[in-house]
Write a structure and sequence with these properties.
alpha/beta, single chain, 9-stranded antiparallel beta sheet, elongated, about 525 residues, 2 domains, Glucose Permease (Domain IIA), Rossmann fold, about 35% helix
């Protein structure tokens, strides 16, 4: 690769940027994925176009310009060139870079070497993504502008450019997917990863064999509650009281009366009912404190949240003596709820009326993403990466306690595993096979009375959609009425486990890997990147 780059014409001596750039395609290879701008910052899409280049093919500058970025972001190599009309072209997921920051290039000059498919993007100075095919065809004519920061020097542009390039890593385009698959293959190709996959398949098969002796057939109608019960809903990390996935549990279908469904407030007490001015709440429960909470409140220490939930549980039990209480928790809420029950039981404060804990998408084994964040926080370079990501991850804030406490090996997760859950409380865990936020394999817990990984679509939406999924509703209804969870076929059970395991592996590569790169001494990062 070094020899190839050495034979390419030098870009450093190219002429100055012209006033009217002429745009040309960067390669003769066909486009394999077109422009699909995401509907939301975190949504699926493709912010540019992907070319189906072969490994080793040269990638050319699309127009005269100045290199404003050439380096690694998020485990991938990128080049960005600024042009006279203010547009910036970016070349992402390449094998090697043929230019340096500050070089001036002419149209057709080589800027990088392809590792396979690569991504071409176009952005305006304010960060708006444009369709590269429209730009290359001359159908987009931005007027010449002075780019903010260009006259003050390249360092002032660096942080913003890194943030924009990090956004490309979230795309579902061919080049991004190929890059992640390649990174995953490097990890999955190891003997240890192969052994883990075999172990997961074996464990899933054993659980399936055990469940076949005690599961509810799919032909059995979904039961409804035949007695009065109270449900306390507990939401996840970064949620606020106004609206979140935990409020989407279909408690009506399960048989809970609307007045018997309470929402835990991370500030303490319950969340006021937003639908009817809090008038549906029974008089006895109305005496409980009602407070709204913000996304920052749900990111306070998990231990503080658990203690506040204990106070709400004991108050509800006192207000409604003898009425069974079920906890329905989503994501981090499951950790909070489980820790609350464990602490209350250890202190002799757990009411006898607490009957069931149902967790959905909860990282009982620790969250890979949180583990990666904790690893990044361990080095100055990693903290710089987190600072760049912080705006895109809003409302999540890695500086608040909860995220680090959800990481593998944190004191909170250790406490969760070492404290016993009362035997009289039925513990049910549900996860999703395609959940990219909390992989299904980390929702599995050996101490659960019953658990399932449900086959779901692959994506970030799978996490929030779990609570309103009809299959989740059925499993909760079976659980709180004392029935075994639903039967799964062997293919469904093992397939869901293996897919969830692959997701967890990719997340570990995508988070802990960059943390290692960020922690490396200056100049060592390139040696840590794949070179084959």
């Amino acid at each position: 690769m070094v020899v190839i780059i050495g034979l390419l014409p030098s870009a450093a001596g190219a002429a100055a940027v012209g006033a009217s750039p002429t745009y040309r395609p960067p390669t003769d290879a066909p486009i394999v994925d077109r422009f699909r701008p995401p509907a939301t910052p975190w949504g699926p899409g493709n912010r540019g176009v992907d070319y189906g280049t072969a490994a080793g093919a040269p990638i050319a500058a699309v127009a005269d310009g100045r290199v404003v970025f050439a380096g690694e972001v998020g485990g991938a190599l990128h080049v960005t060139v600024e042009h006279a009309d203010g547009l910036r072209s970016s070349y992402s997921f390449v094998a090697a870079i043929a230019v340096a920051r500050g070089d001036r290039v002419r149209v057709g000059d080589p800027v990088a070497i392809a590792s396979g498919p690569f991504h071409l993007g176009f952005r305006t100075p304010d960060g708006t993504y444009l369709d590269p095919e429209e730009v290359l065809a001359g159908r987009v004519h931005p007027r010449s502008v002075l780019v903010p920061g260009a006259e003050e020097g390249l360092p002032s542009l660096d942080a913003a450019e890194r943030t924009n390039l990090l956004a490309v890593l979230r795309d579902t385009g061919v080049a991004a997917a190929t890059h992640l698959a390649r990174a995953g293959a490097l990890a999955a190709g190891s003997t240890l990863a192969a052994q883990r996959s075999m172990a997961r398949a074996a464990a899933a098969t054993m659980r399936w064999v055990q469940q076949r002796t005690r599961c509810t057939p799919t032909t059995t109608a979904t039961p409804r509650l035949g007695e009065r019960r109270i449900a306390i809903e507990v939401s996840g990390l970064g949620t606020a009281s106004a609206s979140n996935s935990a409020w989407e549990f279909d408690t009506d279908s399960i048989g809970y009366a609307a007045v018997d469904v309470l929402r835990f407030s991370y500030r303490g007490g319950r969340v006021p009912d937003p639908d009817s001015g809090d008038q549906r709440t029974p008089v006895a429960t109305a005496a409980l404190p009602a407070t709204s909470f913000t996304s920052a409140d749900s990111q306070q220490s998990v231990g503080v949240s658990a203690d506040r939930l204990v106070e709400l549980i004991t108050a509800v039990a006192a207000a409604h003596p003898g009425v069974p209480i079920d906890l329905l928790a989503h994501s981090q809420g499951g950790v909070v709820a489980r820790l609350a029950l464990e602490r209350a039981a250890a202190g002799g404060r757990l009411p006898d009326s607490v009957t069931t804990l149902v967790t959905v998408g909860t990282p009982h084994a620790g969250a890979p993403l949180a583990t990666g964040v904790r690893a990044l926080r361990a080095s100055p370079g990693g903290r710089s990466v987190l600072a760049e990501l912080r705006g895109m991850a809003d409302p999540l804030d890695d500086r608040l306690p909860a995220m680090a406490e959800l990481a593998v090996g944190s004191p909170i997760m250790d406490e969760l595993r070492t404290r016993p859950l009362p035997e009289r409380v039925r513990f049910i865990s549900l996860g999703g096979s395609g959940d990219l936020v909390v992989p299904g394999v980390v929702t599995v817990d050996g101490r659960a009375d019953d658990q399932r990984i449900l086959p779901t679509a692959l994506g970030t939406r799978a996490h929030g959609d779990l609570t309103s999924d009809a299959r989740t509703t059925r499993e909760i209804a079976l659980g709180v009425t004392g029935h075994p969870l639903g039967c799964q076929s062997l293919t469904e059970a093992v397939g869901a486990e293996l897919e969830a395991g692959a997701v967890a592996t990719l997340e570990t590569v995508a988070t802990v890997g960059p943390a290692v790169v960020a922690a490396a001494p200056t100049g060592a990062a390139g040696a840590l990147l794949p070179t084959d």
